[in-house]
Write a structure and sequence with these properties.
Structural class: alpha/beta
Radius of gyration: 26 Å
CATH superfamily of the largest domain: P-loop containing nucleotide triphosphate hydrolases
Number of domains: 3
Number of helices: 11
CATH topology of the largest domain: Rossmann fold
CATH architecture of the largest domain: 3-Layer(aba) Sandwich
Number of strands: 23
Shape: globular
Distance between the termini: 65 Å
CATH class of the largest domain: Alpha Beta
Bound molecules: adenosine-5'-triphosphate, magnesium ion
Strand content: 25-35%
Length: 442
């Protein structure tokens, strides 16, 4: 292997410049000896298998940990399995330590050890006071040497361990710098072994950067049972916790929290959080109903369409996929008279919610038509559809859930696809294609 002696980046191929820190001539060869275990030599292998259905009655219900946070319980399928290893990742400053300490406080009937490699006991004490931590079942350890941590954990009897954060923990058995992938992999492997052997739940906190998808070592994702990822917008107090992987539950749910002056609190009814409070009809604004896991909630799209003064028209939207925006613009040009060839298009989803499902396509199209034609869409309308490449409005997954949630807010018009099974009524209007949409707005 070649390892950068400036930033510890590792690669199998020699390079003159380190691909990570861009320093020159820092890649040094390193020979790593791997100890291979001969089958049966050290481990007392019995060379037999067991019948799956005769393994006993252990069930998730018997071994689960429930927290006082409905959002967290919901995200994890109402149980945190004992002996599971959960990775909690997010950008610096997002609130990982806050959530971890609160999580400890939300579990009252277990012994919890919070290991902080980053903060001193005094800092932890200040944070605990601020967060009104009351549980006497929480012990803290400020340490960043992995062997010392492991020895302490073996001495005490803890049900849950929170390691904040793995990025700063170093093991004597590794020569690599803290935070390097080899260190992290080794420590994680040891912790997984410890968790399974001692029936302990382990939360591992890990810093990732905004481009985490690039820097994320996939091997780590494979090793742990659950991967949670904290999302935020630096200027907003909403925090979303997504489950990217879970060996014991589906990964559709999100947990929504609000960072208040004091702490993170559950936001169990998010429907009115992702729309502006403005009651007036506004040009370029339209509402849709999105579904995240078991919940449906309103989202607001804002469009600004202006004549292109110079060069190519701009297409600007952070929160939905650019190719989807191109598809919506192309469909409008082909199937209606709304042509945006010489217009800049700026799209915003209120409160930065990243929407991956396509069912808000038509709300986006509606807000574009509204801005282009200067016709405001009445605030009491909601659009629930996806556009197909043929300009038709296709059926929507979970349409009943979306319509039911929309009915709660007494919308005067709920626009849904013509081929939906939901019955038409006074406030439910079915639309066939994009031309129908234009007629509704203009
Ligand atoms: N004294 C305070 N009063 C109110 N809010 C605070 C206070 N201190 C911190 N916060 C909030 O907590 C957030 C930081 O929380 P926390 O330290 O838990 O983040 P983190 O993800 O653990 O950060 P790091 O990556 O540095 O470990 C801040 O963004 C801020 O919103
Ligand atoms: Mg922290």
């Amino acid at each position: 292997m070649y390892k950068c002696n400036s930033c510890s980046y590792e690669t199998l191929k020699w390079t003159g410049q380190c691909p990570s820190c861009k320093e020159w001539n820092t890649m040094l060869e390193k020979i790593e000896e791997v100890e291979t275990k001969k089958p049966g030599s050290k481990n007392n292998i019995k060379w037999e298998t067991q019948i799956l259905t005769k393994l006993g009655k252990a069930s998730f219900e018997e071994n689960r940990i429930i927290t006082e946070s409905k959002e967290l319980n919901n995200l994890l399928g109402n149980w945190i399995i004992e002996w599971s290893v959960i990775l909690l990742s997010g950008e610096p400053g997002i609130g990982k330590s806050t959530l971890s300490l609160q999580l400890a406080n939300w579990i009252k009937d277990k012994n919890i050890t919070y290991v902080s490699g980053e903060e001193t006991i005094e800092q932890l004490s200040v944070r605990a006071k601020r967060l009104w931590i009351t549980g006497d079942n929480i012990s803290v350890l400020a340490e960043n040497n992995f062997e010392n941590i492991l020895q302490t954990l073996k001495n005490i009897n803890s049900d849950i361990i929170i390691l904040d954060s793995i990025s700063v923990i170093v093991s004597n058995n590794m020569t690599w710098a803290s935070g390097s992938i080899n260190q992290i992999r080794y420590i994680t492997e040891e912790l997984i072994g410890f968790a399974k052997k001692t029936n302990t739940t382990v939360f591992i906190i890990w810093h990732v950067t905004k481009d985490w998808s690039i820097s994320w070592p996939k091997t780590l994702e494979h090793m742990v049972d659950t991967v949670l990822f904290f999302e935020w917008d630096r200027f907003d107090n909403i925090r979303l916790l997504r489950s990217l992987k879970n060996r014991f539950w589906n990964t559709n749910e999100i947990a929504i929290f609000k960072m208040t002056d004091k702490w993170l609190s559950d936001l169990s009814d998010p429907s009115l959080e992702f729309v502006t409070n403005d009651k007036d009809d506004t040009i370029g604004s339209s509402l849709s109903m999105t579904v995240e896991g078991s919940r449906a909630f309103l989202v607001e799209t804002e469009s600004l369409i202006t004549y292109t003064k110079f060069g190519y028209p701009k297409r600007n939207c952070k929160w939905i996929n650019n190719s989807r925006l191109d598809m919506i613009i192309a469909s409008l040009a082909k199937y209606t008279k709304v042509n945006l060839d010489s217009y800049d298009v700026y799209i915003n989803i209120v409160r930065w919610l990243k929407i991956e499902e396509p069912w808000i396509d038509l709300a986006i199209a509606a807000s574009i038509i509204s801005s282009k034609t200067n016709k405001a869409i009445p605030k009491d309308s909601v659009f629930i559809w996806e556009i197909s490449l043929t300009g038709r409005i296709t059926n929507v997954v979970n349409i009943e859930k979306r319509v039911k949630e929309a009915q709660k807010y007494n919308f005067a018009k709920i626009y849904i696809p013509a081929n939906s099974d939901v019955k038409t009524s006074k406030n439910i209007v079915k639309l066939k294609n994009l031309e129908d949409l234009v007629k509704v707005i203009v």
